[in-house]
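call fold(seq) -> C-alpha coordinates
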Amino acid sequence: MSIKKLYISILTLILMFVTFGTVTFAWISLSTINNIEGLSLTASGGDELQISLDGINYNSELTAEQLYQMFENIRLVDVTSTDGIYFETGGMRDVEEAIANEHYLTFDLWFQTSVRERHVYLVNNVSDQVAYDTSAIGTFVVSHGVMWTAKHDFWYGPDESDMIYKGEEDRYYASDSVRISVIELKDETNANDLRRESELKKILFDPSGDELRGYGVPYGQYSYFIARTRYFIGLPNDVQEVSYRLTEIDPTNPYQALDNESLIAVLQETGEMTESGKTIYRGKVRISIWIEGWDADAFDAVENDRLKIQLQFKALIPPTE
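ret:
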Protein backbone atom coordinates (compact mmCIF):
# COMPACT_ATOMS: atom_id res chain seq x y z
CA MET A 1 0.00 0.00 0.00
CA SER A 2 1.11 3.62 -0.47
CA ILE A 3 0.13 7.24 -0.94
CA LYS A 4 -0.50 6.70 -4.66
CA LYS A 5 -3.92 7.32 -6.14
CA LEU A 6 -6.37 5.47 -8.34
CA TYR A 7 -9.06 6.97 -10.47
CA ILE A 8 -12.26 5.46 -11.84
CA SER A 9 -14.10 6.66 -14.92
CA ILE A 10 -17.66 5.44 -15.23
CA LEU A 11 -19.30 4.09 -18.37
CA THR A 12 -22.72 2.58 -17.74
CA LEU A 13 -25.14 1.99 -14.86
CA ILE A 14 -28.14 -0.26 -15.51
CA LEU A 15 -30.80 -1.58 -13.13
CA MET A 16 -31.94 -4.31 -12.82
CA PHE A 17 -28.51 -4.51 -14.41
CA VAL A 18 -26.18 -1.89 -12.93
CA THR A 19 -22.98 -1.30 -14.86
CA PHE A 20 -19.95 0.87 -14.15
CA GLY A 21 -17.11 1.59 -16.49
CA THR A 22 -13.38 1.96 -16.58
CA VAL A 23 -10.79 2.15 -13.86
CA THR A 24 -7.25 3.37 -13.78
CA PHE A 25 -5.91 1.84 -10.64
CA ALA A 26 -3.05 1.10 -8.37
CA TRP A 27 -2.59 0.99 -4.62
CA ILE A 28 1.14 1.46 -5.18
CA SER A 29 1.32 3.43 -8.44
CA LEU A 30 1.13 7.04 -9.61
CA SER A 31 -1.88 7.03 -11.91
CA THR A 32 -3.49 10.43 -12.50
CA ILE A 33 -6.29 9.70 -14.97
CA ASN A 34 -9.70 11.17 -14.21
CA ASN A 35 -12.64 11.19 -16.61
CA ILE A 36 -16.24 10.06 -16.95
CA GLU A 37 -17.15 8.92 -20.42
CA GLY A 38 -20.87 8.31 -19.97
CA LEU A 39 -23.50 6.94 -17.63
CA SER A 40 -27.08 5.69 -17.84
CA LEU A 41 -29.45 3.74 -15.65
CA THR A 42 -32.54 1.74 -16.55
CA ALA A 43 -34.80 -0.75 -14.79
CA SER A 44 -35.99 -3.82 -16.66
CA GLY A 45 -39.15 -5.79 -15.95
CA GLY A 46 -41.73 -3.11 -16.71
CA ASP A 47 -43.36 -1.50 -13.66
CA GLU A 48 -42.75 -4.42 -11.30
CA LEU A 49 -39.56 -2.87 -9.90
CA GLN A 50 -38.87 0.83 -10.28
CA ILE A 51 -35.95 2.94 -9.14
CA SER A 52 -35.34 6.51 -8.04
CA LEU A 53 -32.45 8.79 -7.17
CA ASP A 54 -34.50 10.97 -4.80
CA GLY A 55 -37.26 8.74 -3.39
CA ILE A 56 -39.88 10.87 -5.14
CA ASN A 57 -39.59 10.40 -8.89
CA TYR A 58 -39.74 6.71 -9.83
CA ASN A 59 -39.13 5.42 -13.32
CA SER A 60 -38.14 2.33 -15.23
CA GLU A 61 -35.36 4.45 -16.70
CA LEU A 62 -33.13 7.24 -15.39
CA THR A 63 -31.53 9.44 -18.02
CA ALA A 64 -27.81 9.87 -18.46
CA GLU A 65 -28.20 13.60 -17.73
CA GLN A 66 -29.60 12.84 -14.26
CA LEU A 67 -26.62 10.65 -13.43
CA TYR A 68 -24.02 13.01 -14.85
CA GLN A 69 -25.08 15.51 -12.19
CA MET A 70 -24.18 12.96 -9.50
CA PHE A 71 -20.92 11.56 -10.86
CA GLU A 72 -19.25 14.36 -12.80
CA ASN A 73 -15.59 15.02 -11.93
CA ILE A 74 -15.25 12.23 -9.35
CA ARG A 75 -11.67 11.49 -8.32
CA LEU A 76 -11.29 8.16 -6.55
CA VAL A 77 -8.27 7.07 -4.54
CA ASP A 78 -7.45 3.64 -3.16
CA VAL A 79 -9.34 3.09 0.08
CA THR A 80 -10.07 0.38 2.60
CA SER A 81 -13.21 -0.62 4.50
CA THR A 82 -14.05 -3.61 6.64
CA ASP A 83 -17.81 -3.11 6.57
CA GLY A 84 -18.71 -1.06 3.48
CA ILE A 85 -19.87 1.80 5.72
CA TYR A 86 -16.73 3.46 7.10
CA PHE A 87 -13.88 4.09 4.64
CA GLU A 88 -10.27 5.11 5.29
CA THR A 89 -7.54 6.20 2.94
CA GLY A 90 -5.07 3.99 4.84
CA GLY A 91 -1.82 2.70 3.44
CA MET A 92 1.21 4.96 3.83
CA ARG A 93 -1.00 8.02 4.19
CA ASP A 94 -1.89 9.39 7.58
CA VAL A 95 -5.00 7.27 8.11
CA GLU A 96 -8.09 9.43 7.78
CA GLU A 97 -11.71 9.10 6.80
CA ALA A 98 -12.17 8.73 3.06
CA ILE A 99 -14.50 11.15 1.30
CA ALA A 100 -17.49 9.73 -0.56
CA ASN A 101 -17.43 10.36 -4.32
CA GLU A 102 -13.95 11.77 -4.05
CA HIS A 103 -12.04 8.74 -2.76
CA TYR A 104 -14.64 6.06 -3.53
CA LEU A 105 -17.92 5.83 -5.43
CA THR A 106 -21.20 5.83 -3.51
CA PHE A 107 -24.83 6.68 -4.24
CA ASP A 108 -28.33 6.03 -2.89
CA LEU A 109 -31.13 4.26 -4.72
CA TRP A 110 -34.78 3.75 -3.85
CA PHE A 111 -36.69 0.67 -5.02
CA GLN A 112 -40.46 0.55 -5.41
CA THR A 113 -42.84 -2.28 -6.27
CA SER A 114 -46.48 -3.28 -5.95
CA VAL A 115 -46.08 -7.05 -6.29
CA ARG A 116 -45.60 -9.82 -3.73
CA GLU A 117 -41.87 -10.19 -4.34
CA ARG A 118 -40.65 -7.24 -2.24
CA HIS A 119 -37.38 -8.71 -0.96
CA VAL A 120 -34.60 -7.35 -3.20
CA TYR A 121 -31.43 -9.37 -3.77
CA LEU A 122 -28.14 -8.93 -5.60
CA VAL A 123 -28.00 -12.06 -7.75
CA ASN A 124 -26.27 -14.14 -10.39
CA ASN A 125 -22.51 -13.58 -10.27
CA VAL A 126 -21.23 -14.54 -13.74
CA SER A 127 -17.81 -12.88 -13.44
CA ASP A 128 -16.03 -16.11 -14.39
CA GLN A 129 -18.11 -16.37 -17.59
CA VAL A 130 -17.59 -12.86 -18.96
CA ALA A 131 -14.64 -11.24 -20.70
CA TYR A 132 -14.00 -7.51 -20.92
CA ASP A 133 -15.29 -7.28 -24.49
CA THR A 134 -18.37 -9.46 -23.90
CA SER A 135 -21.50 -9.18 -21.79
CA ALA A 136 -24.10 -11.35 -20.13
CA ILE A 137 -27.20 -11.18 -17.98
CA GLY A 138 -26.16 -11.13 -14.33
CA THR A 139 -23.70 -9.59 -11.93
CA PHE A 140 -20.10 -9.37 -13.05
CA VAL A 141 -16.86 -7.53 -12.44
CA VAL A 142 -14.29 -7.91 -15.21
CA SER A 143 -11.35 -5.95 -16.53
CA HIS A 144 -9.24 -5.85 -19.66
CA GLY A 145 -6.09 -6.80 -17.81
CA VAL A 146 -2.58 -5.39 -18.06
CA MET A 147 0.63 -7.09 -19.17
CA TRP A 148 3.12 -6.32 -16.44
CA THR A 149 6.75 -7.16 -15.80
CA ALA A 150 7.74 -7.62 -12.15
CA LYS A 151 10.41 -5.18 -10.99
CA HIS A 152 11.17 -7.21 -7.84
CA ASP A 153 10.94 -10.75 -6.55
CA PHE A 154 7.89 -11.17 -4.31
CA TRP A 155 5.56 -13.79 -2.82
CA TYR A 156 2.47 -13.90 -5.01
CA GLY A 157 0.78 -16.55 -2.83
CA PRO A 158 -1.13 -18.18 -1.42
CA ASP A 159 1.16 -21.24 -1.47
CA GLU A 160 4.73 -20.75 -0.30
CA SER A 161 5.99 -21.84 -3.70
CA ASP A 162 3.91 -19.18 -5.54
CA MET A 163 6.71 -16.72 -6.22
CA ILE A 164 7.02 -14.04 -8.89
CA TYR A 165 10.59 -13.20 -9.89
CA LYS A 166 11.98 -9.97 -11.27
CA GLY A 167 11.59 -9.85 -15.04
CA GLU A 168 8.63 -12.26 -15.22
CA GLU A 169 5.74 -10.99 -17.35
CA ASP A 170 2.06 -11.90 -17.05
CA ARG A 171 -1.43 -10.38 -17.31
CA TYR A 172 -3.00 -8.99 -14.13
CA TYR A 173 -6.55 -7.78 -13.49
CA ALA A 174 -7.92 -4.84 -11.48
CA SER A 175 -11.23 -6.68 -11.20
CA ASP A 176 -9.66 -9.09 -8.70
CA SER A 177 -9.55 -6.41 -5.97
CA VAL A 178 -12.98 -4.77 -6.35
CA ARG A 179 -15.40 -4.62 -3.42
CA ILE A 180 -19.09 -3.72 -3.56
CA SER A 181 -21.25 -2.93 -0.55
CA VAL A 182 -25.01 -2.47 -0.47
CA ILE A 183 -26.30 -1.02 2.79
CA GLU A 184 -30.05 -0.77 3.48
CA LEU A 185 -31.14 2.55 4.96
CA LYS A 186 -34.34 3.65 6.65
CA ASP A 187 -36.42 5.42 4.03
CA GLU A 188 -37.04 8.92 5.35
CA THR A 189 -39.68 9.44 2.63
CA ASN A 190 -41.80 6.63 4.09
CA ALA A 191 -43.42 7.37 7.46
CA ASN A 192 -44.28 3.66 7.79
CA ASP A 193 -40.63 2.59 7.81
CA LEU A 194 -40.23 2.23 11.58
CA ARG A 195 -37.51 -0.42 11.63
CA ARG A 196 -34.57 -0.32 14.01
CA GLU A 197 -31.07 -0.09 12.55
CA SER A 198 -30.41 -3.70 13.58
CA GLU A 199 -33.19 -4.85 11.25
CA LEU A 200 -31.65 -3.30 8.14
CA LYS A 201 -29.74 -5.45 5.66
CA LYS A 202 -26.09 -5.13 4.69
CA ILE A 203 -23.80 -6.99 2.33
CA LEU A 204 -20.17 -6.55 1.37
CA PHE A 205 -19.34 -8.58 -1.72
CA ASP A 206 -16.02 -9.70 -3.21
CA PRO A 207 -17.01 -10.68 -6.76
CA SER A 208 -13.71 -12.49 -7.39
CA GLY A 209 -14.99 -15.28 -5.13
CA ASP A 210 -11.42 -15.99 -4.06
CA GLU A 211 -11.24 -16.18 -0.25
CA LEU A 212 -7.51 -16.98 -0.32
CA ARG A 213 -6.66 -13.68 -2.03
CA GLY A 214 -8.85 -11.48 0.14
CA TYR A 215 -8.27 -8.85 2.78
CA GLY A 216 -5.04 -8.38 4.73
CA VAL A 217 -3.05 -11.43 3.61
CA PRO A 218 0.79 -11.39 3.76
CA TYR A 219 1.33 -12.13 0.06
CA GLY A 220 0.45 -10.42 -3.21
CA GLN A 221 0.42 -6.62 -2.96
CA TYR A 222 1.71 -6.67 0.63
CA SER A 223 4.78 -8.75 -0.24
CA TYR A 224 5.36 -6.64 -3.34
CA PHE A 225 5.13 -3.43 -1.33
CA ILE A 226 7.79 -4.66 1.12
CA ALA A 227 10.03 -5.74 -1.78
CA ARG A 228 9.60 -2.46 -3.60
CA THR A 229 9.95 0.01 -0.73
CA ARG A 230 12.03 -1.96 1.80
CA TYR A 231 9.64 -0.46 4.33
CA PHE A 232 7.71 -2.66 6.75
CA ILE A 233 4.12 -1.92 7.75
CA GLY A 234 1.94 -4.26 9.79
CA LEU A 235 -1.01 -6.15 8.38
CA PRO A 236 -4.45 -5.06 9.63
CA ASN A 237 -5.73 -6.74 12.77
CA ASP A 238 -9.41 -6.46 11.92
CA VAL A 239 -11.48 -8.66 9.61
CA GLN A 240 -13.41 -7.60 6.53
CA GLU A 241 -17.03 -8.74 6.73
CA VAL A 242 -17.31 -10.04 3.17
CA SER A 243 -19.34 -12.52 1.14
CA TYR A 244 -17.80 -14.44 -1.74
CA ARG A 245 -21.05 -15.67 -3.25
CA LEU A 246 -24.56 -14.42 -3.97
CA THR A 247 -27.98 -15.81 -3.13
CA GLU A 248 -28.96 -18.96 -5.02
CA ILE A 249 -32.33 -19.08 -6.78
CA ASP A 250 -34.54 -22.16 -7.01
CA PRO A 251 -33.97 -23.64 -10.50
CA THR A 252 -37.66 -24.61 -10.66
CA ASN A 253 -38.95 -21.17 -9.58
CA PRO A 254 -37.10 -18.04 -10.78
CA TYR A 255 -38.76 -15.94 -8.05
CA GLN A 256 -37.79 -18.11 -5.07
CA ALA A 257 -34.58 -17.40 -3.13
CA LEU A 258 -32.92 -20.41 -1.52
CA ASP A 259 -30.94 -18.33 1.00
CA ASN A 260 -30.49 -14.73 2.14
CA GLU A 261 -26.75 -14.39 1.46
CA SER A 262 -27.22 -11.29 -0.72
CA LEU A 263 -30.54 -9.91 0.50
CA ILE A 264 -30.07 -6.13 0.29
CA ALA A 265 -33.49 -4.68 1.13
CA VAL A 266 -36.99 -5.51 2.31
CA LEU A 267 -39.37 -3.00 0.76
CA GLN A 268 -41.81 -1.54 3.30
CA GLU A 269 -45.52 -0.80 2.94
CA THR A 270 -46.04 2.91 2.28
CA GLY A 271 -49.79 3.35 2.75
CA GLU A 272 -49.98 4.40 -0.88
CA MET A 273 -51.85 2.56 -3.61
CA THR A 274 -51.46 2.19 -7.36
CA GLU A 275 -54.26 3.25 -9.70
CA SER A 276 -55.32 -0.40 -9.81
CA GLY A 277 -55.55 -0.58 -6.01
CA LYS A 278 -52.33 -2.45 -5.24
CA THR A 279 -50.23 -1.62 -2.17
CA ILE A 280 -46.96 0.18 -2.92
CA TYR A 281 -43.80 -1.03 -1.15
CA ARG A 282 -40.62 1.01 -1.04
CA GLY A 283 -37.02 0.78 0.20
CA LYS A 284 -33.69 2.57 0.10
CA VAL A 285 -30.09 1.37 -0.21
CA ARG A 286 -26.64 2.91 -0.40
CA ILE A 287 -24.26 1.33 -2.91
CA SER A 288 -20.49 1.80 -2.62
CA ILE A 289 -17.83 0.54 -5.02
CA TRP A 290 -14.09 0.70 -4.41
CA ILE A 291 -10.75 -0.93 -5.02
CA GLU A 292 -9.78 -2.56 -1.72
CA GLY A 293 -6.21 -1.52 -0.97
CA TRP A 294 -5.61 -4.44 1.40
CA ASP A 295 -6.59 -7.00 -1.24
CA ALA A 296 -3.82 -9.34 -2.35
CA ASP A 297 -4.22 -8.20 -5.97
CA ALA A 298 -4.19 -4.44 -5.33
CA PHE A 299 -0.67 -3.72 -6.54
CA ASP A 300 0.61 -1.66 -9.46
CA ALA A 301 0.51 -4.54 -11.91
CA VAL A 302 -3.00 -3.36 -12.82
CA GLU A 303 -2.24 0.30 -13.35
CA ASN A 304 -4.22 1.61 -16.36
CA ASP A 305 -6.48 -1.43 -16.46
CA ARG A 306 -10.08 -0.87 -17.61
CA LEU A 307 -12.86 -2.20 -15.42
CA LYS A 308 -16.50 -3.08 -16.16
CA ILE A 309 -18.99 -3.79 -13.40
CA GLN A 310 -22.56 -4.92 -13.81
CA LEU A 311 -24.92 -5.61 -10.91
CA GLN A 312 -28.19 -7.49 -11.25
CA PHE A 313 -30.88 -6.92 -8.64
CA LYS A 314 -34.02 -9.00 -8.46
CA ALA A 315 -37.11 -9.05 -6.23
CA LEU A 316 -37.60 -12.58 -4.85
CA ILE A 317 -39.63 -14.57 -2.34
CA PRO A 318 -37.37 -15.21 0.69
CA PRO A 319 -36.71 -18.82 1.77
CA THR A 320 -38.79 -18.46 4.95
CA GLU A 321 -42.04 -17.89 3.06
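The chain has one domain: 7-316.
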